[in-house]
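Today's session is about reading a structure prediction critically. Students often jump straight to the picture, but the first step is always the sequence itself: look for stretches that repeat, for charged clusters, for runs of hydrophobic residues. Only then move on to the predicted structure, which in these notes is written as discrete structure tokens rather than atom positions. Here is the chain we will use throughout the hour.
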Amino acid sequence: MTTPSDPSYPAHWEADVVLRDGGTARIRPITTEDAGRLVSFYEQVSDESKYYRFFAPYPRLSDRDVHRFTHHDYVDRVGLAATVGEEFIGTVRYDRIGPDGRPATAPADEAEVAFLVQDAHQGRGVASALLEHIGAVARERGIRRFAAEVLPANNKMIKVFTDAGYQQKRSFEDGSVHLTLDLEPTAESLAVQRAREQRAEARSVQRLLAPGSVAVIGVSRSGGGVGAAALRNLRDSGFRGHLYAVNEAATADLLDGVRAYRALGDIDAPVDLAVIAVPAERVPEAVAACGEHGVQGLVVLSAGYGESGAAGLDRQRELVRQVRSYGMRLIGPNAYGVINTAPEVGLNASLTPAPAPIRGRIGLFTQSGAIGISLLSALLRRGAGLSSFVSAGNRADVSGNDILQYWYEDEATDVALMYLETLGNPRKFTRLARRTAAVKPVVVARGAGRHTPAGHVVPGTRLADTTVSALLRQAGVIRVDTVTELVDVGLLLASQPLPAGPRVAILGNSESLGVLTYDACLAQGLRPAVPLDLTTAATPESFRLALGAALASAENDAVIVTVIPWVNEQEPQDDLAEALRDAVAGHPGKPVALVHVELAELVDALSPTGVLPGAGAGARPGPASPGSTGAAPLAGALPPRPGARETGATAYAGPGADGPGSGEAPDGRIPAYPAAERAVRAVAEAVRYGQWRRANADSGHVPQYEDIDEAAAAARLAGLLVDAGDGVLTLTEADAGALLAHYGIRVLPTLPAPTADHAVRAARALGYPVALKTTAPHLRHRADLGGVRLDLATEADLRRSYEELTDLLGRPDELLPVVQAMVPRGVDTVVRSVIDPAAGAVLSFGLAGVASELLGDTAHRLVPATDRDAAGLIRSIRAAPLLFGWRGSDPVDTAALEELLLRLSRLVDDHPEVVGVTLEPVVVATEGLSVLSATVRVAHPPARTDLGPRTLPSY
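Below is the predicted structure for this chain, in token form.
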């Protein structure tokens, strides 16, 4: 008998998945303990579905059927179930068959597959998810093809197979459709899988951000505490759906004017979203009530989880398991909440005091509630509106990846701003960010670096922060260092068009401020024109004419306007704002940014939505927003979270408004900055992002090389790993060379020279001239220590060098000397690939030598690399001019270098067993290149890779 506690039970096949409608299910192997669940599941399936499964009326399962469908060896016979709340909603099984169609064992590589999905759950993508997972299991067990018999009328199941993207054959035999699927992943099957992932995860976030009804669980009768604050914010922000309060001690029909219930189950209507604000020890009870009531998603504000220590972390893991068992998604725990400013929703399920932020085009995601408060205040104080806001706290379930999936197709969001303390899955994040950045900017500030905040349970990364930044920029992400820069860049991108190039015009009424701006542009790699000084006598009309001329000029891609106060204070700043807006309106299409010195009124005039005070005393009241009372409420103190200490943190207050919402943030705002460096940095990031967008209109392709022998490499790796155990095996020089040769990478032969006579015989075999070098680990690649002798043209030269080497550095058995043939001179480079536990396979390139190592002059790309990636990789290091004819030298063969990078990328992408490769040095000559040394490390591949089926993170 095989049960989940049995050692043979394949626990790594268990996975949580998001279905097409945004709900979740758990996929796991069927065990002998599932007999009762299987019978109950079958009883709920319609007669029509049973007929489609068995090709005949089949009202009930016999005892023999139940035994067959619950007893598996997990090799030749496998069954998986999709479950919600421990009940089956769908099943799939395969049975290995031979050429005659009868049961077989390995090496037979074909299996018959069959599905059954409960009628109530058909159309949710259950069968598609099961096919992905059973396909991955089959590949793991050496099965390469699935065969299926389907009745012609069973269009839904035929569509599941035909839409999967696998190579397939289809025929009609004996009254049924016979389908054969090749299980090898293809570009099409991967594209189908990722498109389904995007739609499902986006839908799951949409259900959280656009609920038709919300219940707040944990509302105190006194009106204090987090629950009561969340309820008030929902109510006062004008939530358009149904709102309920839940308090087990409620004695009245209303709490704070909202219909109140003693238990969630007492609500006689659907509840889409539940906001939970009870102490952590009572959250499981609340989650169970939500699951039984059919709630779709949760926002857990309660603290006392991963951020509080080991016990809290265990509580957090159990919370995620419980939530997903009911098919729900979770924001939190320890969350600050969510906001959706869409007029048809009006959701403020957060601790942000009402009224809600104004509607705008910026989406904002944070993991830290405190940073979320700061960013909201900064954005809205400067007149920017939001489309949506998510502060995920410990982000035990819903993460930045899910939000990116949602923003990608959200027409209300033009710019995505993210404050991330951890990336979680950098490989998936960069994939999603690249796709999103192709249509809208993604700006990221990382706050924790290599430190993982309490409560965040993510795979560790061995990559340096600079490497992660390089990978993010490769994906089109605008990486900034501070939350101030996050706001600065976001403001520009949300209100201005992208610049067509780096040429910047500078104009203003201060020569000194113009020069500062000019220098800042040079520092950012922009191409500024000589600043135009309008002098301190400039009028608003002077600014209008100058700005209009600068925007009309074909010589400029962007304009920065600098303004200092007028000495006589006669010029009304509203007039200047109007003049600048008129100039922009007359010449649209180019970005404009303003640098000001102590001109708060001008900033307000350029942002008609006004400001969001919230800084307490002394805050400037801006012009009232549409529908506002003109009053500027001060920030209110946040109530303590259940289970958390009071911190004294304060939240910003939104603009005063009589009704819900304050209208759309206007288009055409001109972003204003109090320092030239900040404005220039924002413009420079927009320039670089625009260049990335244009360059990545064609993302390139992964070349196919006819001389690559993938099957031979796989067979060699399988043989090498037979005795490798669970560790990492470093291949011998011969094995490394043979493996690389399968991918067209030739390593220059190296012959050992334990004595001078051996060195002479090796030189005769290779042909003079030769090189003599040490290979001891402490001397490897250390030419600066004298361990390498080149251009030895005769036997006498070789024997003399051998004697000098051993006299200087030690005995031959310590030095491990070798002999190699000389190769054409060129530039010494280093090519590496490493498997990072979080980011996956990373390809790296740099020049050989201590200078590059010391300065960290290495570039990185994710695998698989395209031809554009390879070309960009060798050009992105600071020392790249040495490859292209610096100071009159001959350019080297960069085409051969790019091909080497692409071949190595193919190797590590095709074979996850290859966990590390170092080619050092690679001498790139004017024609061709030579790989002088190779180190290859291999290990058994992980159970899941990025090419595997869709799964939710499980930490």
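Discussion point for the tutorial: Residues 609-639, 645-666 have pLDDT under 50 and may be disordered.
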